[in-house]
Amino acid sequence: MEDKRSVLRVENVTMQFGGVVAVDNLSMEVFEHEIVALIGPNGAGKTTAFNAITGVYEPTNGAIYFNDNLVIENHPQGKMKKNYAGRNMGKYEKIIVKTPDQLTRLGMARTFQNIRLWKTMTVFENVLTAKHLRRTSNYFTAMFHLNAREEEKMRQDTLDLLKLVELDDVKDELATSLPYGKQRKLEIARALATNPSLLLLDEPAAGMNPQETVELAQFIHDVREKFNITILLIEHHMNLVMDISDRIYVIDFGKEIAEGTPAEIQSNQKVIDAYLGVSEDE
Amino acid sequence: MKKILAILLALAMVFALAACGDASAEKKSDKVVAYVLAEKGDTYSLGLANNFKTAFEALGGEVIMETFPANTTNFSDYVQKAMDNSAAVMFAPNSTTVASNLIKNAQDLGVEFPLMAGDTWESSVILDAAKGCDFDVYCSTFFDENDESGTAKEFVTGFKAWLNANSDKKDMNGGNDIVAAVSALGFDAYNVAMVAIRAAAETAGSAMTSIDVAKAICTAKLENAVTGVIQFNETGDAIKDSAYIKKAADGAFQFVKVQKTANSDSPMSTAKEYAEAGIALDTANKKIVIGVYEPTSGANGAGGKQEVLGVEYANSLDHVVTIDGVDYEVVLYVSDNGSLEENAVTAASAIVNQGALVALGSYGSGVSIAAADTFSAAGMPAIGISCTNTAVTEGHDYYFRTCFLDPFQGGVMASFAWETVAK
Amino acid sequence: MKILTKKSMCNLALVIVLLIVLVCIELFAPATSMWFSVLRKVFTFSLAAVSMNLLNGFTGLFSLGQAGFMLLGAYTYAVLTIPTDLRHTVFRNYGDSIFNFQLPLVIALICAGIVAAFFAYLIGLPVLRLKSDYLAIATLGFAEIARGLVQLQQFGPVTNGPDPINNFTAPKNILVYAAIAGVCILIIIMLIDSTYGRAFKAIRDDEIAAEAMGINLAHHKRLSFVTSSFFCGIAGAMLAMCNTSVSSVSFTSSMTYQILLVVVIGGIGSVSGSLIAAFIYYASSEWWLKFLDLETFTAAGTKIPLLGPGFRMVVFSVLIMIIVLFFRSGIMGTREIDVYGFFCKLAGKGKAKKAQEGGAN
Amino acid sequence: MNIMPYVIRGLATGGQFALVAIGYTMVYGILKLINFAHGDMFMVSGIMLIYMAGSTGAMPIFASIIIMVILTVILGYLIEKCAYAPLRTAPRMSSMISAIGVSYLLQNLVSYITGGLSKQYPEIPGLSTSVRFLGVKDKLSVFVSPVVAIVLMVVLVLVINHTKFGMSMRAVSKDFETSQLMGIKINRVISITFAIGAFLAAVGSLLYFSKNTGINHLAGSTPGIKAFIAAVVGGIGSIPGAVVGALIIGLVESLAKAFGLADFSDVISFALLIIILVFKPTGIFGEKVIDKV
Fold first, then answer.
1. Domain A1-107+196-282: homologous superfamily in CATH
2. Interchain proximity D93–C132, CB inside 8 Å
3. C324 touches chain D (CB under 8 A)
4. Domain spans, chain D
5. Which listed residue, B45, B71, B397, D122, has the most CB atoms within 10 A of its CB?
6. Residue C72 has pLDDT above 90, yes or no
7. Per-residue confidence (pLDDT) for residue B359, from 0 to 100
8. Rounded distance between C-alpha atoms, residue D250 and residue D106, angstroms
9. What domains lie within chain B, and their CATH numbers?
10. Beta strands in chain D (DSSP E)
11. What is the ipTM of this complex?
12. Peptide bond just before B362 cis, omega within 30 deg
């Protein structure tokens, strides 16, 4: 495991809103070309951790490294200094804040739990617009259409991408008129259009029937192969997680309670207790 | 809740601070102080205010001048400022809408010094507002209703009869038959135009164009005008050397005095040169159109309508011109500029569109200036009736004017104010 | 990118036809016809409407500051194009203007745009972070501040204080207005079709998704706001040309509401909608519906009820309510003029049915 | 320089604006909508009284005041029903444009009826008499306004915090959908909110126009905008905030005039608005709202 390059390293990340500690000192690592899942019962802090990693929230404490260089670091400030309940109090001094678009520029693209496609745009335009991030033209060359070559390349790449994800047959449909499964695939395709090296999926199988979940599992697997990409996903559907994940982190009440391959996790007593509830005497 | 208490405590503190402010500390300047209040962004108001300031300071007085933003309705703070600076007179050349609130606020605050303004205050709105005030309200104007001299008397009786004969005309005048100065000016402007048209007919006959009328106006002279002899100087302004001062006293304007100042201008000897082709005489249906470019709606609607009435009354008395033995009917075309500068070009183009030979108006300097280029492009002369800002005629060869100018009016009121308060 | 697809060819043809009509009006219409003053206003306000649409319709930023930027553009243009000899007469109350040179028309227009864009950049820094309705009020506040400051006598030498500015170069030829408006609107259309235009539309549809796809919100909002204000400045300069005199009194918030009305009638998010609506609104309000304001009498002398000064504006305000309540998408909604598509529909009625059966089996 | 008269008149304008500002805050709290037409409703109630009891009308003053208040409340109710209810599900921009449309309609309608001329507000027996207090001579309405504003504020705060209806208003302002699920009749709550806002505007117009008696169709625009700035300064959504914000705005403007900044008085209140929006968008009393992804 060690010779693999570390793509994402989360160090002692804590999220505390007032008195509530949503994520408590979470540390995890995702290596190149891996599919890692972060699971946990409802309200375990998965989504909060995910939003801290993707720059939507600033973590109260801790650091996040992407391809081994520091992207986010923070330590308790102001009122939070007094009532900070977590550990590693003094370990982090620097304050580095990245907005979601800066992280995406670095190569971390994400999707959303409730699909957020651009509703007035067609399938093709949704993916084409995501190409905007990797543009080389500046405002004026684009305004006066002097970047015709780059525009042509963007459109061609979008077509190729849509073919890869088998959405080219509906490329001129309005994005929101597609069936649920296809909308999810489109959202992933749109994320891929920003040429990411790490894909972050926020409960991709939410609201899907078993048939669609199986198709999605296969799709995520293909994406990793075709695009040679690392994937971190948070999910509820156990069969999806067990089916495609290389490694799994389990968190409960914000704390990490287990880490390992799907087989280890299935037999791990703490995980079972967390999910099925434990008798009080533990 | 504790935030509310904190804020109310702070307000009480401000109260206490205000209470202990010593009332006696007003600076006592030895000079006679005049407080001038003008509307920000209003060309007429600021033009008059600046001229009053220079003239009053030249006479040895001290002037505090402030402006208020448009649409202000509460003037108590400004009146309070005048009282704090122990002003002897307040000069506030503003529209009647502003004046009605300003006078009422001055009455609330128990003001003793007189309030003065320019010609806009010569209207029934001011009479209502000034009812029961224990300070004097003066305004300068071009004409006085009970001026006994010759044509004025004849005009007043005729105009009153005409108003009472047509109820819709009376409504337009604000529901009464008080003769507004601007009606008298409208009457004179129409007659000057007629003199010019007849002079042009003499020289060019039925081939005459609006250019001939313009040239005729340059050297025109109206002896028995209601507002005194009318002749134009080099820039096209009537040569005026006196203004009537009136006081608003319980429901009517009382004539106070004629304030004279020297005016060294000499009348234009030769007509100006005009390049444009101008508009031809409508020989086909024997009609001469005179454009009436006035605000009949918007903030200055009231004044504009009264001006139109003066022109219409004059038209009812004299509306036929014989050119080369043929009788031409003189017809009026009223175009409303809604007292807004952005309508000026469209309203003026409508008059040009009607093929008028001369345009009369407008009430309000801003709209007049805005239309000047449209008239000059069409080669049509225009006679300003009550717009007093210098910019109306300056640089516009086609624009003339029968009323006096701001600098004149500012100077006259400054000398009148100085005489009434400084002695 | 193939520029000359069938669709754009037809649209181009339409533009050429309109140009020919314009040239005819310019050459043959009688000098006094109302077409001139109306068309000048139509071109001015269609540019203003399209630039407002770029901001409200394509980027989803609801701003009410258009009157302020037009004011800045109009003043910049007017002050920079007064002939040096007339300069003293225009600025007579304030000594002399601090600029004593006269710029050619095109350069002055660009300066008008640049000044408006510069102030847009300044006010944009603090204001663009705000939520939609707060942004509307903050920009409305900016327009009022701009008007309040420009009127100040202390700024006399620069803006001539409250006195109107006139005697600057004000062309009469409607083709000049058509050219200026045409070039600017073409640039805006090309911008909307470019990758930045797509980024603006992404911000409009879903800001959070746009940020997640790597679009720097603050930067792109500022670009859209500054560009829209740049073209608003030019529209302001054109308005100065139309009115041949500029005074801050006419740049009130009701001018912004009028432009908003034009954008709403045309359809928020449709450039051709704004153009059509600008023509209909200004042609009728300046000319066709002018009779609503005049107290006209029938032959028998009885007064036609309701007609009278101010009635025209009542009709327009009722029009806004009807459109915003019942025709929310306006004339064109978010569609653009598609002459080619229009003819296809007409010509291909039969063909389309057959194609449908063909496609079905 | 004795600033007491400026302070009193500043608080007076502040009090009058406060009653309008409360209307803005309540409507924004519930519907998240800036009711542009609120200022014009204030002006319409003034014009109504003129046509009933002023020079043109002939009804006794007290009867016409009561009728005016009732008519204003009905007007507020109608505006909500016709202009905002149909757009409840529409995008935010449409309801904002509809608000601007109503404001435009009211202004142009009154301008058409009055011909654009300003009319004189009738004498209100109590309020219009001038009186001397703390060394300042002015109309009674000047001294009464801040008191009335604070009293009505206290009454309203009690109603909202301690009555069943008040609770439903708070629920609706916190979360629209869930309060519907909880069986609160949304439309009734909204209509009553508009009615209260209209009532306060009517009382505010009584106080304001008895002092500034010349009214034309634009008389509502400045108070309307100043009241909204007050609502934002105080913290939109909070009623005490609206009153305190209005008092502050009134004071700032009067003191600016006192210290010779009269030329800038309109610019100052808008500058204050932008500063508050940028540095403390929730205003003095507002609470932070975190919108989740």
1. P-loop containing nucleotide triphosphate hydrolases (3.40.50.300)
2. yes
3. yes
4. 22-129+141-148+185-219, 223-293
5. B45
6. yes
7. 92
8. 26
9. 27-142+410-422 (3.40.50.2300), 152-232+267-403 (3.40.50)
10. 119-120, 130-133, 136-139, 214-215
11. 0.81
12. yes
